Amino acid sequence: MEPIIRVENLTVRYDDALILDDLSFEVHRGEIFVILGGSGCGKSTLLKHMIGLYRPENGRVWINGRDVVSAEGEEREDILRGFGVTYQSGALFGSLTILENVRLPLEEFTTLNLEARDLVARMKLDLVGLEEYTHHAPSQLSGGMQKRAAIARAMALDPKILFLDEPSAGLDPITSAELDALIRRLARNLQVTFVIVTHELASIYAIADRVIMLDKETHKIIATGKPEELRDHSDHPQVRRFFRREAETVSGAKSQ
Predict the structure, then answer these.
(1) What is the C-alpha separation between 35 and 20, in angstroms, rounded?
(2) What is the pLDDT of residue 119?
(3) How confident is the model over 84-113, as pLDDT tens digits?
(4) pLDDT-above-70 percentage for the chain
(5) pLDDT band with cut points at 50, 70 and 90 for residue 249
(6) What residue segments make up the domains of the chain, in order of their start?
(7) Burial of 247 (0-12, 13-18, 19+ CB in 10 A)
(8) What are phi and psi for residue 53, nearest 5 degrees?
């Protein structure tokens, strides 16, 4: 499959603390790619470097053949407009309606008139099942609906890549399953590539075409592949414990 994202030899350090060490991997066009691992392993840090929020100590991130790390000026802005991002909280503006939130990127980055911006925003809200809530404030929506509105806003400029940071965080199992179904539907119907940070096993099994697993101790990738294959066939004890939800005692022996 054709890679749409390439991460090459990425090393991230905060002051003297090594967070990620020499990571290299590819994300294929049209797949749902999941970054997972235990708490504090650097999942969200990796995502923030992939979208260009921070510059790494070393390495490159290529998106559609262009390096987001070294790009500057108009080239960098053009690369950033090629993908959408949602954050764990949804990050909707409470003073704006849902329609106005989704319309915001169109106001910032296009010359469309108000009628056209409203039309596009309504189309995006329709894609996520929120067409009846255009004039609601974020506070009037449930947590799951806020997450869907954030995805609609991330799609406003028709990106071919969506980065989602912990989309299922704080959601009940039913709402989380509905969000998983939406992600799969968008990926298949719109041919959007998803890069998702999560540690929710149910969501990982439901949506992931392929995963990488980060390790807090080595700061490296310790597994890559389909989640079911890693669960059933990985020879790495930490990988098996993660996918099988097996606890570990202080001494290192598996609890019964």
Answers:
(1) 13
(2) 96
(3) 999 876 689 989 999 999 999 999 999 999
(4) 95
(5) low
(6) 1-82+161-168+177-256, 89-158
(7) exposed
(8) -70, -35
Whether residue 214 has pLDDT greater than 90: yes
From the list 80, 84, 205, the residue with the least C-alpha distance to 149 is 84
Alpha-carbon gap, residue 220 to 139, rounded angstroms: 39
Token digits of residue 218: 């080595």
| Phi, psi angles (nearest 5°) of residue 192 | -90, 140
User: Minimal CA–CA distance to 163: which of 56, 88, 242?
Assistant: 88
Strand partners, 63: 5, 66
**Cα dihedral across residues 40, 46, 49, 51: positive or negative:** negative
Q: Give Cα separations from 85 to 90, 113, 227, 236, 250 (angstroms).
A: 10, 24, 24, 32, 38
What pLDDT shows up at residue 168? 87
- Indicate the SS3 state at residue 241: helix
Residues 66 and 83: their CA atoms lie apart, in Å, by: 13
Domain covering 1-82+161-168+177-256, topology: Rossmann fold (3.40.50)
Q: In the chain, which residue ranges form alpha helices assigned H by DSSP? A: 43-50, 73-80, 98-109, 114-127, 143-154, 173-190, 201-207, 227-233, 237-244
Q: What's the DSSP call for residue 139?
A: G
**Around 187, how many Cα atoms within 13 Å sit in the side-chain half-sphere?**
23
- Residue 256 confidence class, pLDDT cut points 50, 70, 90: very low
Rounded CA gap, 174 and 248, in Å? 29
Instruction: Answer whether 25's CB lies under 8 Å from 225's CB.
Output: no
